[in-house]
Structure formats: structure tokens, C-alpha cells
Design the sequence.
């Protein structure tokens, strides 16, 4: 269901996994994100839990309908279901004999300091497994939770109270799914810090924008990590081949290994020109959700490849409906373009040698006009005027030191192809940025090709271009200014082909390094007050856009640097 009261069309499956009942008791919003929106993220706790769980995940031992009186039962990783209880589970361990069986559930942590010596969530999940066993004809009155860290098995009795609590949780999760409305985030809960979905849920951020928390930096907790652990892998050596060996992506040129990257530390892979990717490497990218971005040799971004599309159909339905709503499209476009113009003005005021007051005033006027535009055509005109004003002063942010034989000169924006080194750098920076935002939108669950401001065009990621607007000056343009002013690049780093200018291979490598450093730079979020990297900001903004489209927050908060 969205903000207009229309249902999302989600029909819950006939059976709910026992693990999801655990999640529902822990946090209904967490269960909704995982079950309905099919979104998931892995953190250290999840990865370690899966590693420690590997032994009981191996199917071993038999559990048949006919049990011998003198034969003990010891079956691992048993999949069973109960239509009557609307439950399905993979039970870690079932042990016992003909008289009675007991489920054993493995948990990575230590025995908790509670009266029951188990968490409520763990007891409910274990009881759900017992209900399945009972419905399949087995006698089951008790089970156990095995806490791996403590190496301790804690017994659990399936009394009437626990059974009622478990069945209430099952009914609750089905009701939540049928209603199709995401539960609100927990308020100021310590559970959020250990939750792998905190960066997806954005509990405090959503509560604040929905009016539940006052906009005070001291009140807003930074739950999500400041930086991503995983980083992109760029391969631009012509004739290179990306392969897989164990847990590593390896890059070979002919028979020589020229580089490698650990797979779990790779966020996505970008290849330029004549670079091959082995079937094994591509399969691993699909399995692990690592997108493959494809560029021409000169850096023109023309697409991505990956595994199955994100399962969050609810978000894409909201996106498609918003794209048909002229008022919502215009509201989003106004906010994004006004933010872009404000960020252009901020960049000029920070870096220009002698900015004319009239230019700053014009950009302020354009930002205000963009925020009040009545139709898309007038917004396009306002953006064009602001761009002319901004780029007319862009040269004043570049340092061309006296006495040098070669200078970077900028006399206006040109592209397709760029005709001078500065425009070649700008085009390359925009290609890298649209790649990163496209990858982010795919990861969040959007259709990157359906935008609100940029028109639909075959093969063009219009939504990525929309979201990129507010980051063009403060990420892409900022990198261009930095590499020029710090003399990272010079005349020797460019090649002219006819009228067009392009970067040489070594220059692209230097520029990518500078671009990645910019994305990893920590900044104070202007709305939430905590410090995170620009790379993390891209994801936060994409998820906030999703929160707006699905009706959780009333307005999309664009990013304006301080």
C-alpha cells in the first residue's frame, strides 16, 4: 500500500520461514524489508554467523516417517514445512528417538544474561520448528539453542505461552505482508547498531524526516558505517582478462598476472575497451551481487551487467507510478536542480580566485527560480541559464601557474566529443559518476533507466542522471579542479584525435585514483549532522528517494554541501 491507500499487489506466500518469524519478533520493519521487499545486506555478524553455521548446513542423517525403536535420530539441515501452521524451516539439527525428537538451533553469539538464558527471538524460532515437527507427526515438547561462542546448549520447553507467542508472531507477519505497509522504524533502539540492514532501513534518518526526531545532530545517531569496506575494481589495460582463482579476482595480460582484488572487498568491476571477463568470474559477480560496468576505451559508459534484478518490486511500482505523476516528477526535478545550482555556487565561492558578486547573485536567483518552476520546460531553461553562468566562471577556479609552457584553458562546456583537456576531464568524471550512481540504484532496487527530470531515451540511465545532478559540481567538477590545480595531470597526459581530445591510459589511471579518493572523503551530512563518505552519501540519497516514493517521508531531501 502506498500513500494514496492503494495496495502494492504483494501476495504473501503460503508459508513463512521460521527465520523470518525470528526477524519479525526482533523488528517488524526488518522482517518487512527482508520478506516483502526482498532486500538484504551482510555485515560482519552475518558473515561470521554463516561461517560458524557451515557445519550444520550440510545435509546429513535421515529423518523418516518410520523410526526404529532402537535407533537414535541425528539429522542435520532438515527442510520441513507445515501448511497448517503456515511455516517452513531448515532445521539445523533434529535429534532424539522414536519416542520424541528435539530441534537444535545454532546461534553465533554467547548465552545471553537473561532469566531464560536465551533471547525471545531465538525461542520463537525454535518453537516454530517444533510446530512444524509436530504437524509432521513427531512428538516434540522441548528443544535447545546452541550458542557457538559459549559452546553451550540451552534447553527450551515448548509451553502453552511460547506456542501462543509463536503463533501470534506468524499471524502478525502475514497480516503485515497482506497490508503492504512497511512498519515504522524502531525509535532510539540499541538493536539498530548490530542490524545488518541499518544502512537500508535508515531508522533515525527516516524518523527525523517523518517528524519523529527533531533535526538536531546530537539526537541523530550515525548507525551506518562512515565508509564502505568494499571498493571498485577498474581494469583498463587493453587485452587484459579478468578471471577468478579461489576468493580472488585476477587480472592477466597474456600469461602475466598484473593485478588482483579479493572478491569480498570488491563492490563492482569496471572494464574499459578490449578487456575480457571469464565465465567463472562473471558467474561469481552474479552470485555475489557485484555489478560489471562497461566503458569504451575513452571512458564512455554504455551499460552494466549483473545477476537477477533486485527483487524489491514494491519500490519499482512506486517509481513507475511517480513517473506518471506530473506533479511528483516536477517536485523531484525542482529539488534536484535547485540543489545542483546551490552546489555550483558553493564550489565557485570556495575555489574562484575573484568571483564576481553578480555571478553568485545570478546563481542564487536561478536556484530560487528552479525551486518555484511551474513546469518542466521552464525548469530546463532555468538550468541552462545557471549552467552558462557557472561555466562562464569555471576557468577562475583553475590555477595556471606563471612560467609554465602549457596551460589548462576553459572557454565553455563542449562534449561528444570534448574539444579541449578540461572538457575531456569533465566528461570522464561524469561518466565515472553516472556509473557509480547507476550501480547504487540497481543495488537499492530502482530501475535506473526511468527518470523524472531526464527524458527516457534508449540505453540512457535517466534516473542516474537525475540523482547525479546534485553531485556533479561537488564530486565530479571538484576532482577535475583538484587534478589540475595540484598538477597531477599536464599537457603530456592528453592525445588529440582530429578535433577531439582524450586522456592517455596512464592519465586515466591517475584520474581514477583522484576520483576514488574524493568518493572516500568524509563530509558532514548537511541534514543529519554525522560524517560519512561521499560514496556512502550516494546510497543514502538513493534510499531516501525510495522512502519518498513509497510515502514514508513527505519530501525528498536533496544534498546541499555546506
Sequence:
Amino acid at each position: 500500500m502506498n500513500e494514496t491507500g492503494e495496495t502494492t499487489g504483494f501476495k504473501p506466500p503460503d508459508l513463512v520461514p521460521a527465520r523470518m518469524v525470528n526477524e519479525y519478533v526482533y523488528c517488524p520493519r526488518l522482517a518487512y524489508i527482508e520478506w516483502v521487499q526482498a532486500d538484504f545486506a551482510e555485515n560482519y555478524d552475518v558473515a561470521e554467523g554463516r561461517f560458524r553455521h557451515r557445519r550444520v548446513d550440510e545435509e546429513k542423517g535421515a529423518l523418516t516417517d518410520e523410526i526404529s525403536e532402537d535407533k537414535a535420530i541425528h539429522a542435520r539441515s532438515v527442510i520441513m514445512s507445515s501448511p497448517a501452521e503456515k511455516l517452513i524451516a531448515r532445521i539445523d539439527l533434529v535429534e532424539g528417538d522414536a519416542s520424541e525428537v528435539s530441534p537444535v538451533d545454532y546461534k553465533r553469539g554467547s548465552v545471553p544474561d537473561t532469566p531464560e538464558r536465551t533471547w525471545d527471538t531465538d525461542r520463537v524460532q525454535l518453537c516454530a520448528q517444533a510446530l512444524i515437527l509436530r504437524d509432521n507427526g513427531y512428538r516434540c515438547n522441548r528443544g535447545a539453542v546452541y550458542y557457538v561462542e559459549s559452546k553451550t546448549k540451552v534447553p527450551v520447553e515448548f509451553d502453552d505461552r511460547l506456542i501462543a507467542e509463536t503463533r501470534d508472531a506468524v499471524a502478525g507477519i502475514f497480516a503485515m505482508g497482506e497490508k503492504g505497509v512497511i512498519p515504522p522504524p524502531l525509535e532510539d533502539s540499541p538493536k539498530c547498531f548490530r542490524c545488518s540492514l541499518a544502512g537500508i532501513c535508515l531508522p533515525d534518518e527516516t524518523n527525523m524526516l517523518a517528524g519523529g526526531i527533531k533535526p538536531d545532530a546530537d539526537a541523530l545517531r550515525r548507525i551506518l558505517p562512515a565508509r564502505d569496506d568494499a571498493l571498485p575494481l577498474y581494469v583498463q589495460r587493453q587485452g587484459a582478462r579478468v578471471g577468478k582463482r579461489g576468493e580472488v579476482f585476477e587480472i592477466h595480460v597474456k600469461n602475466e598476472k598484473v593485478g588482483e582484488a579479493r572478491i569480498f572487498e570488491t563492490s563492482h568491476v569496471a572494464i574499459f575497451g578490449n578487456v575480457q571477463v571469464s565465465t567463472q568470474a562473471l558467474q561469481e559477480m552474479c552470485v555475489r551481487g557485484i555489478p560489471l560496468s562497461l566503458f569504451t576505451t575513452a571512458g564512455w559508459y554504455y551499460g552494466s551487467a549483473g545477476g537477477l534484478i533486485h527483487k524489491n518490486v514494491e519500490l519499482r511500482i512506486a517509481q513507475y507510478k511517480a513517473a506518471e505523476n506530473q506533479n511528483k516528477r516536477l517536485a523531484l526535478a525542482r529539488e534536484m536542480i535547485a540543489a545542483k545550482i546551490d552546489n555550483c555556487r558553493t564550489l565557485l565561492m570556495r575555489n574562484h580566485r575573484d568571483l564576481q558578486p553578480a555571478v553568485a547573485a545570478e546563481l542564487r536567483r536561478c536556484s530560487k527560480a528552479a525551486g518555484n518552476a511551474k513546469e518542466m520546460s521552464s525548469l530546463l531553461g532555468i538550468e541552462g541559464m545557471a549552467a552558462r553562468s557557472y561555466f562562464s566562471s569555471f576557468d577562475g577556479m583553475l590555477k595556471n601557474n606563471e612560467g609554465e609552457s602549457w596551460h589548462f584553458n576553459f572557454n565553455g562546456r563542449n562534449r561528444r566529443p570534448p574539444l579541449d583537456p578540461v572538457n575531456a576531464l569533465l566528461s570522464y568524471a561524469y561518466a565515472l559518476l553516472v556509473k557509480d550512481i547507476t550501480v547504487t540504484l540497481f543495488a537499492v532496487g530502482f530501475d535506473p533507466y526511468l527518470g523524472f527530470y531526464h527524458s527516457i531515451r534508449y540505453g540512457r540511465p535517466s534516473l542516474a542522471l537525475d540523482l547525479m545532478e546534485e553531485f556533479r559540481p561537488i564530486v565530479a567538477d571538484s576532482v577535475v579542479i583538484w587534478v589540475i590545480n595540484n598538477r597531477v595531470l599536464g599537457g603530456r597526459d592528453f592525445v588529440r584525435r582530429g578535433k577531439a581530445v582524450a586522456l592517455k591510459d596512464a592519465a586515466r589511471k591517475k584520474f581514477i585514483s583522484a576520483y576514488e579518493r574524493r568518493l572516500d572523503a568524509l563530509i558532514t551530512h548537511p541534514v543529519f549532522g554525522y560524517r560519512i563518505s561521499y560514496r556512502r552519501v550516494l546510497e543514502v540519497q538513493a534510499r531516501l528517494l525510495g522512502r519518498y516514493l513509497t510515502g514514508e517521508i513527505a519530501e525528498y531531501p536533496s544534498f546541499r554541501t555546506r
About this structure: The longest helix spans residues 326-351. The domain at 313-549 is CATH 1.20.120.920 (Four Helix Bundle (Hemerythrin (Met), subunit A)). Residues 1-7, 49-54 have pLDDT under 50 and may be disordered.
